[in-house]
Amino acid sequence: MRSSIWHPFTQHGLAEPTPLVTHAEGAALYTADGRRIIDAISSWWVNTHGHCHPRIMAAIAEQATRLDQIIFAGWTHEPAEQLARGLLEIMPAPLAYAFFSDSGSTSVEVALKMALGFWLNRGEPRQRIVVMESSYHGDTIGAMSVGARGIFNQAYAPLLFDVATVPFPTAGSEQVTLDALEHFCTHEDKPAAFIVEPLVLGAGGMRIYAPWVLAAMRAICAAHGVLFIADEVMTGWGRTGTLLACEQAEIVPDILCLSKGLTGGAIPLAVTLATEPIYEAHFSTDRSRQFFHSSSYTANPIACAAANANLAIWREEPVLERIARLTRLQGEKLSGLQGVANARQIGTITALEIEAPEGDYLSALGPRLLAFFRERDLLLRPLGNTVYVMPPYCIGEEDLAAIYTAIGEAIDAMRG
Ligand SMILES: *Cc1c(COP(=O)(O)O)cnc(C)c1O
């Protein structure tokens, strides 16, 4: 059967198989050809409580009978109001306003635009953004500009804006990162903001750094009046063991981006949270100072209802206990693997490198690994030779054991 669909991050010329999924439940996906696939990466990091969580599905169905979609510029609705209240209740206090959009990338665009608007409206225009090496913030032009440059975006490089980049804080060399950040923050071309993925860089290869470094970076930005943007699109909603990764460093950003797990991973929605001064800088009787951003589906009521169900699950179910259980199991399974290079873990995420002659994303090993895991009915999608496991919190021990057995086999097979 030939399809006219052009898939993301897919080289159709290679004619690799494209499994057709008919339904999903918990940590399992079911295909049209009768296979049960273990979702070891939470369907690309979005799913937290498992697929088709009954409360989220019911909330979507219920909302769909009342209000499907409504313009959000100058109008509001209860699911969005309830969601904003619910979010601000569980997010750290200085974050006081919620701006909705529809993907992680747009939540980042919104954050960058808020930062520039903040400085412009205060009469001190600033444009420069400081970023961390190997970061990923999304695939739109602005989000790509603040992310790592490479094969993914070299065709668009002329359109990307310049940024100042601090090195990744490798263990033992953290001071180099902090010095670079301090240098940029005290430069005469003052940055508007520093944007960072707290504690773990996702698409950059699941690179983990210590909470004290995050706290020190936050302190440098605060000391020099540079806005601190935390992109918790991947790390939010418990991935690193706490609701937010920022909690582990006891910091609060000026602007916070959330998406992926916001609806439990069921339906697209994003939110950019901002502190009072950011909102205040746009608050005026002068329309030219308003925040100029929207997308058609901003705060879609059905998506907001799904997010409200996610918040109810966090309030009423033992989510942190499930995360602690998965964290423990992940640690046990990871330490059971032999001959692993650079094994690491943060909360529910584990990662390791499979030794290869060349370790870049397009190396032959990546596709070989992908096929290896696909043959074993596992949804694992290595980043080059980096294999990581990031399952829904409800995954069973048997499924987890199957994942690590396959990884162990892959280590042996790729070596030979
Ligand atoms: C996935 C991701 C994004 C982009 O989110 P999309 O919903 O895919 O646009 C941004 N930042 C981080 C840290 C991410 O992991």
Helices, by number, come to 12
The shape, in one word, is: globular
CATH fold-level name of the largest domain: Aspartate Aminotransferase, domain 2
Alpha-beta classification: alpha/beta
The CATH H-level homologous superfamily of the largest domain: Type I PLP-dependent aspartate aminotransferase-like (Major domain)
Order of helices and strands: EEEHHHEHEHEHEEEHEEEHHHEEHEEH
Description:
This protein has 416 residues and is of the alpha/beta class. It folds into 2 domains: 138 residues, Aspartate Aminotransferase, domain 1 (Alpha-Beta Complex); 261 residues, Aspartate Aminotransferase, domain 2, CATH 3.40.640.10. It has 12 helices and 16 strands. Strands 4-12-11-10-7-5-6 form a 7-stranded mixed beta sheet, sandwiched between helices. It has a 4-stranded mixed beta sheet with strand order 1-2-3-15. Strand 13 and strand 14 form a beta hairpin. The longest helix has 19 residues. The relative contact order is 0.16. The mean pLDDT is 96. The site of pyridoxal-5'-phosphate (PLP) has 13 residues, from helix 4.
